[in-house]
Structure formats: C-alpha cells, structure tokens
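ingest -> validate -> predict -> emit
validate: passed (alphabet ok, no gaps, 537 aa)
predict: started
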Amino acid sequence: MHEHPPNSPTGQVPPPVTPVGGATVTVGTQAGSRPGNAHPVYAKPRGAMGAMCLALILVASSMSALNLALPQLALDLGASTTSLTWIVDGYTVVLAGLVLPLGALGDRYGRRAVLVAGTAVFGAAALTASFASGSAELVAWRAVMGLGAAMMMPGTLSTMTAVLPPDQRARGVAAWAGCAAAGVALGLLASGVLLEWSSWRSIFTAAAAAALVTGVVAVLFAPETREARPGRFDAAGAVCTAIAPGALVFALIEGNDVGWGEPPVVAAVAVSVSAAVAYVVLGLRTDDPLLDPQLFRIPGFRAGSVTIAAQFLAVFGFYFVGLQYVQLVLGYRPLKAGLALLPIGLVVVPVSQTTPRLAARFGARAVMVTGLLLLGCGLVAMASLDAGSGYLPFLACLLVAGLGVGMTGAVGTSAITGSLTRDKQGVASAVNDVTREVGAAVGIALMGSVFGNRYRASLPEAVSRLPRDAAEAVRQSPAGGLHVAGHAGQQGAALATGVREAFMRGMSAALLSAAVVVAVAACSLVRAPGRTRRSAD
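emit:
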C-alpha cells in the first residue's frame, strides 16, 4: 500500500501537491517559494475553505432534509412505508457505496474537477426529481443525487487540508466536522421552512439551486489538487465496496416487506456477504487496495469504526421515525417538527468538546462504551413512550441519547485517527466517511423496515372492514391512515387512535432494534485499547 498524506481520501499517496490559483502543480514547492519547501500554502485559502464547506453542507443537508416531507410524500405519491424508506435511503446507500472509489478518481484526475462534475450531476438530478410523479421515479433520482454527492464529498476535506499550512490543518479539520454536523441541522430547518409555504418539490428545487451556486464557487475559488503519481486503481475493490452495502440495504428493506425467505432477499444477503468476503480476500492480495483490510486488525482503529457506524445507524434511523412521530402523533407542522429536534444540539456540541479531556482521564474505551450505552438507553426510554406521552418525555429521551452521540462522535473519530501514523491519515479520513455513510444507510433501512412491518401488524381489525382502497391507504403508511380517518365520519376518531397506536408500536420496535445494535457494538469494545495515542497530525 502506498504511503499517503493527510489529505488523501483513498489512502493512496502522492508526493506533495501544490495548488496555485486555479492551476495544478504536482511538484513539492510552491511557485515562487524556495526549493525544498515541504509544506506549500495556497495563496487564498479562505475562498477555497468556503467552497468546500458549502459543498459539504449541501451533501450533509440532503441526508436529512427529506425526512420532514415523508407525510406529504405518502399522501401525494401514495408511497408506502417501504417506498418512503427507499426514497430516503436511495441517496444514502449510493453515497456510502461510491464515496471511496470516487475519492480515488478525484485523487487521480483532480479533486476539484470531480467535485464540480458532482455538483452538476447532483443539481440536474435534484431538478428532475422535483417533477417526479411516482415513488419509483423519485427513488431513482435520489440515487443519482447520491452519485453526485459521492463525487463531491471526498474532495472537500482533501482540498481543505491541501490549501492550509500544517499549523492550521487541525482547525480546518474541525471546520470540516462542524460543517458536516451543521449541514444535517440546516437540512431540517431549510426543509421545514420550505414545507410551511410550499410542497416537497421545493426541497429538490432549492437543492438544485444550491448545487449550481456550489459548483460556481468551487470553480472560482477552489484550486485543483491531485496525486502526482497515483497507484493502480483498485477496480475490484471499488466494485465490492459498492455492492456490499447496497445489497445489504436491499435485503433489509425488502426482507421485512415481502419476507426473509423470498429468493430476491436471500440472493441479496448472499451477494452482500460474498462482496464483503471478496473485498477482504482481494484486498490482502493487491499492493494498492482501496482500503487495506488489515487495518481493521488494529484495536483502536476497529473500535472507532464500530463506534461511528453504530452511532450513525441509530441517529439516521431515528430521524426516519422520530420526525414522523412529532408530525403525525404530536401534530406539529414541519417547521415546528424540525425545531423540536434542535435541542439535541445543545447537548451534543458541548459534550463533544469535553470528551477529549474525558478520554485523556478515563481512556477512550470507557468513553466510547459509556457513550454507546447512553445512546442505547435514550432509544430504549423513547421506545416506552405512548401516543399520549407528549413532547417533554420525548425531549428528555432525546437529550439522554444526545449525551451518547456527543461522547461517541469525537472519541470514535479520534480512535480511528490516533491509531494510525501521520502518513496514514488519508485512510483514517476515508474510513471515517465510509463508516458514517454505511451506518446511516443501514440504520434507515433497518429501522424503516422494522417500523413498517410492526405498524401493519398492529393496525386495528376495523381496518379490514374499510373499502379496499381506504384499507390499502391505511396499511401503506400512517400518514395515509390519518388521512383516511379524517374522512371517515363518526368512525374517524377511533381509526385515528388505532393508527397512532400502531405507529407507536412500530416506532418502539424500530428503536429497540437500533438499541440492540448499539448494545452489541458497546460489548464488542471490551478489547479496545483503554487509550489511543494522539495522531501525529
């Protein structure tokens, strides 16, 4: 495996790369600087930083923005819970599967070029999605948006670290992490505002406009950087990393819908496992793997990866069901629903800033395990709520889970980066990205599927006595069920109560399934190192 710099998202390593304005220089010194300068500095880093932050916010916000529109989508497109899961997860699973190979292409052909092309793909797909007339069409365009996002995301951190001098790179990485977190919150707020005055289609129109602005800003202010002597592209590894999570998500979503014993589901599980095994076998045999499987033998590296994946599985799976809860059960409008989740930031931000000191005193393992257990406890407590619990108990559970999120995020990332030397920080960045996206994709699929299955099984028997079209609408989604109840006359109140109770049983089952995964992840950390050394960069 090649040696690589802190800004390579693929782990393949170039000689120093010098960005100068819009040109690409692949020598070790900056134009006009003294020979032998090992740390070239871009003349105008603030513009480049702003462009990369804008691109990252666009990618992150699109992961969360559509969750607030799920009730509208269910009614407008007649989408079932399974279709809603695919609409949300189509974007995330493509992003998870392609972020590594497209990051490698950016290293090879130019990170800015791939990023700008990604904004074009993303924007065109978003604009087309705004005209979608069916759920299958919308899923397809969301997947294309995920392709554009996978082209954009890897180059953001790589470019930011390339344009900054060494003594400012830590600050740049912190800004990158802050933008990733802010993007999720901004996605919820922006979609909440749009949905107050317009339909779900406005979310895609706004995303297309934002992609256009991002592409123009990147062309004007971001330099081009690439590897001077890239290694052989790991095509087999790229195929395996794309297929493994995609097939797993397909199996999770369709398994709970059509049955785990159906041939397509069994085949998907087999394909996912085979792709993962093939990646390990082929990765051990190649000199330039996309991501060296042997790195997961390092206890701290493995522990951090498990922690981040479990955290994102729980968080993004929760968004899928939690935002429907505050709208359909509590009756909040979209903007108020988005605001109802913001208090979690009041916990996550300060806790994440104090966890490095906690890790230094008690050890990374203790902090990661405690954080995962708090996250799991928050999910279990939330699963005990009923349709009449109200917002305050929900908020209390949310804050407990927020403590866990704040503790696991920072320390999990530090465990990954601290397990590798400075010249391996590109690999650390890549793994941090991939574990986040794969965790989010699997979490949405798992919790969405469990929720839909339990919701349908918990509907009152009276649903079967409704007219066929009305009964099918109730079974497809809770939003459809409440819509039918609103037009059912004297029976409407009883039907609405039954739909909300079925929703709560579905949400409880989904939250408990995530809590089990989080608990298993916490137990797997018993052999993690108590302390990880600080990263050299």
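The longest helix spans residues 425-458.
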